[in-house]
């Protein structure tokens, strides 16, 4: 039947997978980033201004002092996604993050959706952080800029901001210019701001433990205010968990978003000197540092003053005034601006790399893949910076933040799903649908490396670690050749848990956010089916062949072969 033949042809186009090169010597980007650069990038992107605001708001209204446990739960949930990114970042050390991982695993259409979701997240994130930077700076000036622009350039249209924020737009353009000089120069600036931010947060934490009072974690219900302005029980029942364990869990859902940002490390895969080692270490260490910072600041806040007195907009300055250290508010202001600067840089850095990767593969317009003599995706950097600057200048971004969260959570879920797919893989092939579930429903008659791996990781998860854990793998018949490669333990449970939690979180978002998201995806589909599907570089390889040798390089196609409990890239002939 001709119609069936045409349908099969279209499905084959949508499901074609990217052939990955084993060597990056033919890459146009420069490998210059170290592990320290990646850790600073991840911490700077994740540890934004939220650490100066979020803890006060959540502790006062949702969790009380048990916010420290909320951050612990949120950190564990984020680590589930982080492990998936770490494994893929080591296996496929190229630019593109979730877009690339989906392309090599489940096919072109899913890859485009992942990349389009990431672009949505980063462009809205960049514009919103730029506006927050502008608002913080304006507050230090006594809100002179806001009053002037509100009086002379007010806007009243639906969806637009109250007035244009020229300062925020100019800041985005300035950083886009910095990024166009090269990633190494940008990361040097990022490291300086990140170090200063971490020092301020360390000062806050130490101050809280010095001046704090443990009795603030043991308040009785009689100690809480019962004024006419507040209903009885408005601040819970006191104690460490005044709102109960349900409040602690609800706070963990909010605190989860405080850890979004580490995935920007994966977008630099093509610019890291030793990606197999640096990317996993960068992701895990940055999440650990961010957790310690959030844990320390939230503990300090709730120790310095009773949780019900915390200020929801400026908790740290108010807390320092409460203990008699009013001058510390200047250190907090400096730290807040540094955090916003690194968060802004961390949002802007991945955008052009996603654009570059998609344009290089032919799914977006080719000029976006142009690289400067400094080996930087300059056109993609300037275009993405211009779009983010326009959003920051004109639009009301509060309504767009939920839409950004949809894109981020769906990208996380796609990476977790790709880990499930690639772990159950015959040599040289990546299956489209077969999952670990097949083996759980119908277990193999004899032990296999995969079934043994589940037993091994279950044992190590309950207390066996170090050399004993590796010895167990050896006893199970698992080769240790890929010991250096990051692996997600407890397959399939951790990736499935990550996907489940992401689904619950995304289901909480409003219908308006979903409508805006669907509009963004409709634009993406128009671009893909009108341009990308016809210009994809994967349509240029003759049937049954891989990528050809690049001029002046020794690039070869990666054969995906099982190696222990993970898949390792190995070039044919090696």
Automatic annotation (TrEMBL):
Residues in Cationic amino acid transporter C-terminal domain copies: 487-536
Source species, domain of life: Eukaryota
Main location class: membrane
Any single GO BP term: L-arginine import across plasma membrane
Subcellular locations according to the entry: Cell membrane
The entry's keywords: Amino-acid transport, Cell membrane, Glycoprotein, Membrane, Transmembrane, Transmembrane helix, Transport
Family to which this protein belongs: Belongs to the amino acid-polyamine-organocation (APC) superfamily. Cationic amino acid transporter (CAT) (TC 2.A.3.3) family.
Name of the protein this chain belongs to: Cationic amino acid transporter 2-like
Organism: Cyanistes caeruleus (Eurasian blue tit)
Gene field: LOC111935524
């Amino acid at each position: 039947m001709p119609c069936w033949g045409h349908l099969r042809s279209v499905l084959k186009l949508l499901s074609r997978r990217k052939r990955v090169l084993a060597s990056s010597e033919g890459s146009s980007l420069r490998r210059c980033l170290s592990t320290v650069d990646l850790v600073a990038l991840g911490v700077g992107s994740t540890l934004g201004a939220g650490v100066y605001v979020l803890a006060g708001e959540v502790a006062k209204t949702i969790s009380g002092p048990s916010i420290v446990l909320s951050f612990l739960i949120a950190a564990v949930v984020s680590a589930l996604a982080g492990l998936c990114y770490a494994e893929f970042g080591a296996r496929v050390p190229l630019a593109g993050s979730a877009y690339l991982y989906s392309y090599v695993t489940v096919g072109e259409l899913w890859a485009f959706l992942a990349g389009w979701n990431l672009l949505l997240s980063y462009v809205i994130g960049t514009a919103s952080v730029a506006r927050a930077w502008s608002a913080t700076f304006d507050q230090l000036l006594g809100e002179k800029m806001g009053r002037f622009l509100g009086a002379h350039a007010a806007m009243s249209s639906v969806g637009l901001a109250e007035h244009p924020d020229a300062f925020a737009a100019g800041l985005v353009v300035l950083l886009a210019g910095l990024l166009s000089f090269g990633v190494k120069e940008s990361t040097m600036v990022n490291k300086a701001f990140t170090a200063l931010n971490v020092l301020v947060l360390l000062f806050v934490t130490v101050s809280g433990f010095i001046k704090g009072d443990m009795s603030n974690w043991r308040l009785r219900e009689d100690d809480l205010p019962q004024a006419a302005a507040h209903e009885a029980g408005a601040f819970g029942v006191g104690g460490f968990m005044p709102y109960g364990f349900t409040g602690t869990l609800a706070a963990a859902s909010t605190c989860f978003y405080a850890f979004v940002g580490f995935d920007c490390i994966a977008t630099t895969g093509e610019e890291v000197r030793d990606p197999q080692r640096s990317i996993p270490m960068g992701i895990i260490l940055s999440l650990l540092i961010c957790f310690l910072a959030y844990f320390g600041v939230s503990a300090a806040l709730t120790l310095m003053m009773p949780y019900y007195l915390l200020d929801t907009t400026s908790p740290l300055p108010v807390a320092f005034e409460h203990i008699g250290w009013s001058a510390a508010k200047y250190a907090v202001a400096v730290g807040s601006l540094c955090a916003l600067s690194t968060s802004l840089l961390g949002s802007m850095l991945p955008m052009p790399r996603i654009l570059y990767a998609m344009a290089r593969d032919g799914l977006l317009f080719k000029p976006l893949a142009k690289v400067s003599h400094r080996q930087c995706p300059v056109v993609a950097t300037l275009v993405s910076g211009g779009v983010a600057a326009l959003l920051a200048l004109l639009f009301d971004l509060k309504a767009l933040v939920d839409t950004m969260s949809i894109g981020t959570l769906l990208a996380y879920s796609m990476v977790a799903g790709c880990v499930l797919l690639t772990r159950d893989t015959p040599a040289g092939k990546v299956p489209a649908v077969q999952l670990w579930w097949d083996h759980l429903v119908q277990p193999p008659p004899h032990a296999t490396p995969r079934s043994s791996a589940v037993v091994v990781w279950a044992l190590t998860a309950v207390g066996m670690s170090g050399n004993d854990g590796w010895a167990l793998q050896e006893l199970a018949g698992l080769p240790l050749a890929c010991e250096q490669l990051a692996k997600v333990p407890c397959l399939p449970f951790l990736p499935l848990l990550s996907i489940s939690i992401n689904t619950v979180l995304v289901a909480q978002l409003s219908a308006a956010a979903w409508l805006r998201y669907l509009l963004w995806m409709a634009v993406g589909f128009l671009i893909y089916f009108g341009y990308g599907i016809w210009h994809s570089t994967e349509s240029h390889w003759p049937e049954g062949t891989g990528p050809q040798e690049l001029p002046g390089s020794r690039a070869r196609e990666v054969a995906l072969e099982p190696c222990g409990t993970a898949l390792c890239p190995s070039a044919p002939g090696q």
